[in-house]
Structures are given as structure tokens and as C-alpha cells.
Design goal:
Elements: E1 10-11, H1 20-27, E2 39-46, E3 50-58, H2 70-73, E4 76-78, E5 81-85, E6 91-94, H3 96-109, H4 117-130, E7 142-151, E8 163-173, E9 184-188, H5 206-221, E10 226-230, E11 238-241, E12 245-250, E13 255-257, H6 268-279, E14 284-286, H7 291-300, E15 303-310, E16 314-323, E17 326-329, H8 337-350, E18 361-363
Parallel strand pairs: 1-3, 9-10, 9-16, 13-14
Antiparallel strand pairs: 2-3, 2-8, 4-7, 5-6, 5-7, 6-18, 7-8, 10-11, 12-13, 12-15, 15-16, 16-17
Helix pairs in contact: 3-4
Bound molecules: pyridoxal-5'-phosphate (PLP).
């Protein structure tokens, strides 16, 4: 690595990129996570060398030895953030340093090397520069960036690996939930928990998502869009959704979200919403909310709105809640005014349609 945390990237453009006509066809309805750009970034790590061999090259399968440690012990972490096209044709990222910091925190929890934040943000710039034509221009569209890192050492044995591969791929996306902004239905899992105290819940590691899949499948079987996990100790308090944090909006204008106790992912959208809500004059509280409280307050009408938030779905109203013993609506099943105002405020800042008093938006191109 030269010049402190700065890496020099070798650029090898894809010799056979997708044609402009085919790309335009793919971009008309990209969906979410289905199509990918022409390139990827890779950076290698070895204990003896540090970070080395940073490249931008054609997106291609990654050859892997069957004894690569990740395939056995799941040392893997990832991030997710979006690049947005601005009205003047530029490109921005939303709080990429926050993703870089979370990537470091995830690496530390999984006994992996920390990629310097500057190398993380530079890697994003590199793929955006070379694949800029893949960024959708419509208002719901963006380029979803997926940085990830895994143990590539060829070794069987339970200990931290000494070789890793960091990679960034990019996927043009539309809305996460098909049908635009309409309230989703959630399933409160009675049997499965996501993360226990002292576990890996606050790390963005693949294993957390593997553990959530059976519960998410159960949610779909019950006609729900997402699963809600309760705390692993008492099975009483709301932790988060399979891939989103959750907020409760009360009739006195207070917003409440579960605290960061180590079992939930510290969402960057969550943190942004706390800031925006306080700036809009709401009282905000980070405190445990029990499922019993959620039910009782929805029934009494004290609880007016509930929403989920995360990079993929931005801010999405939760209209209906199902659980083994029944179901109930929140806010009559309609999107709430506070939810939609916060969503608009956040999207306006992210897309450069409103001033950014927080320094959250990074211009990349
Ligand atoms: C489990 C989980 N919780 C919350 C979030 C929201 O985090 P962010 O707002 O940083 O996207 C995500 C998505 O990254 C997630 O996977």
C-alpha cells in the first residue's frame, strides 16, 4: 500500500462490455439485485503483505479452492449502499464513510483484517467511474453497490484465516418492494431469533442472513413481506426486521426505535432518521419496545405509524402485523403522514433535490 491508506488500482477495462442497446433494455426494469454491471473491484489481503493487488476488471466468476476457509467457517462480511444520479448528471453516494466504518466494525467482530476506510471509499469511486452508464436515471432507480470480503485462505481448521479477498460488485436497481411505496405486512417470528447478546447481530456478516432465511420463508408462507425478530433472551422485545430497522410513531409525535445493544444492525438509515426526525421537531427515543406494547398501542390508537428503514427499501410503512395467534393493522393499514414526510426528506437529501446540512452526500462524479 502506498501513501498511507491509499491504494493504487490497476484498471483493466472489460474487453467485451454489454452493448449500449442491451444495457438500455436491462435498465428499463432492473428489479433488485438481478442484473450487474460490466466490472468488479478486487483487493487481496495476506497477513504477510497487507492489502495488495487492487484492481478494476471485468466482472467474472471468482475461482475458489474447495478448501477456501469461507466455504467452511463462513468468515464473510458485506456492505450495501447506493449511488444516485443527480439532476445535473453527476453521481453521489450517501454517507459512504459510515459504511466504511461499519465494514471495519464487522471485520473486527469476525476476526478479519480492517480495510482502511479510504480504500473502501476509493473502491466505490472506481467502480462507479467505470460503470457510470449503468446508473439508472429514473427517480426510483440507483446503482446498488455491494462491497464484500471473505476468507480465501486454503485451509481447514477453525481459526481466523490469513488471506482474504475484498470485492465490489454493482447492480442497477429499482424499488426494493415491487409496487412502489405501499405498506408492507410483517410476520412476528414465534420460533426463530436472529442474534443473541454477545453474538454477531451488529456485524453485517453473511451468517446472520443465513440464520434469518427460515424465518423469512415462514413470513412469506403467511403472506407477509418481511420477518420481525424478537430478542433472543426473553422473546418479548422487538429487535429488527430481516433486513431493516424499525421505528414506532406515537400520537404525541414521539418516534421510538430499539436501542443498539449489539443484537441489531446499526443501520445508517436508522441513524439518519433519528437525526431528521429530531430536526423536524419530533421527540426521539432509543428504547426497547415489547411486542405486547406494540399490539396494545396499535389497538388503543396511541401508536399511529410503524415503519421499516434501510438502504434497500429506504423508509417503508408497515401496515399490518401477523403472528401465530392473530393479526392487526397499524394506522388502518395506510401509510402515515410522519413516515411519508421523513421518507421524502431523506430521499430529497440523498438525490440532491434538497440542501444537505449534515454533510451526508459525497459527490463522486
Ligand atoms: C439486518 C439489517 N438491519 C438493518 C439494515 C439497515 O441498514 P442500513 O440503513 O445501513 O442500510 C440492514 C441493511 O443493511 C440489515 O441488513
Amino acid at each position: 500500500m502506498s501513501g498511507g491508506d491509499k491504494l493504487d488500482f490497476e484498471i483493466r477495462p472489460n474487453p467485451a462490455p454489454v452493448s449500449a442497446a442491451d444495457r438500455a433494455a436491462l435498465l428499463t426494469n432492473p428489479g433488485f439485485g438481478r442484473i450487474f454491471t460490466d466490472h468488479m473491484v478486487t483487493i487481496r489481503y495476506a497477513d504477510a503483505k497487507g492489502w495488495y493487488d487492487a484492481r478494476v476488471e471485468a466482472r467474472a466468476p471468482i475461482p475458489m479452492d474447495p478448501a477456501a476457509a469461507v466455504l467452511h467457517y463462513a468468515q464473510e462480511i458485506f456492505e450495501g449502499l447506493k449511488a444516485y444520479r443527480t439532476a445535473d448528471g453527476g453521481v453521489t453516494l450517501f454517507r459512504p464513510e459510515a459504511n466504511a466504518a461499519r465494514f471495519v466494525a464487522s471485520a473486527q467482530r469476525m476476526a478479519m483484517p480492517a480495510l482502511p476506510p479510504q480504500a473502501f471509499v476509493d473502491s466505490l469511486r472506481r467502480i462507479i467511474e467505470i460503470d457510470r452508464e449503468w446508473i439508472p436515471t429514473d427517480t426510483d432507480g440507483s446503482l446498488y453497490l455491494r462491497p464484500f470480503m471473505f476468507a480465501s485462505e486454503v485451509f481447514l481448521g477453525v481459526r481466523p484465516a490469513n488471506e482474504y479477498l475484498y470485492t465490489v460488485i454493482a447492480s442497477p436497481v429499482g424499488a426494493y418492494f415491487s409496487g412502489g411505496v405501499k405498506p408492507v405486512t410483517v410476520w412476528v417470528s414465534p420460533d426463530y431469533t436472529r442474534a443473541a447478546p454477545g453474538g454477531t447481530g451488529a456485524a453485517k456478516c453473511g451468517g446472520n442472513y443465513a440464520a434469518s432465511l427460515v424465518a423469512q420463508a415462514e413470513a412469506i408462507e403467511h403472506g407477509c413481506d418481511q420477518v420481525v425478530f424478537l430478542d433472543a433472551v426473553e422473546r418479548r422485545f422487538v429487535d429488527e426486521l430481516g433486513g431493516m430497522n424499525v421505528f414506532f410513531v406515537y400520537d404525541d409525535g414521539t418516534l421510538v426505535t430499539p436501542p443498539l445493544t449489539g443484537t441489531i444492525l446499526p443501520g445508517i438509515t436508522r441513524e439518519s432518521v433519528l437525526t431528521l426526525a429530531a430536526a423536524a421537531g419530533h421527540r426521539v427515543e432509543e428504547r426497547p419496545v415489547s411486542f405486547a406494547e406494540w399490539q396494545a398501542d396499535a389497538a388503543s390508537g396511541r401508536l399511529r405509524e410503524v415503519f421499516a428503514c434501510g438502504t434497500a427499501a429506504v423508509i417503508t410503512p408497515i401496515g399490518e402485523v401477523k403472528f401465530p395467534d392473530g393479526e392487526f393493522l397499524v394506522g388502518g393499514g395506510e401509510p402515515g403522514a410522519v413516515t411519508m414526510a421523513l421518507r421524502q426528506r431523506l430521499v430529497d437529501i440523498q438525490r440532491g433535490d434538497a440542501p444537505d446540512p449534515y454533510g451526508w452526500v459525497t459527490r463522486v462524479l
